[in-house]
Amino acid sequence: MFEKLFFSKYVECILFFLYVNKKSYGRELSEHFSISNSVVQNVLHQLEDSNLLIGIQSGKTKNYEFNKKYYFYTNFFGLIEKAYKSLPKDKQDAYVSYKRKRPRKSGKPL
To answer: What is the CATH number of the domain that holds 67?
Structure first.
């Protein structure tokens, strides 16, 4: 829907996913949207090069999130927010990740 605004459906998917989930890493995005990992990594590198996203190394994993020091952050984030809220509810649910982010406590029953 906003492909023409963001120039790519992959950029749209990644930006909306990061808007909802605050941070993510490349493999998680590629599995969530069933996109090739190399395509996701290329898009993430392009967005990082434009200073829109920042990548924070956490062990071997590089987590990406919006760069709050980006000059147009408030304007761009407001645009993403309005675009996301204008989507139908079923499309909004496609960007929510229900994956557990932290490990379970050891010995805790399932």
So the answer is: 1.10.10
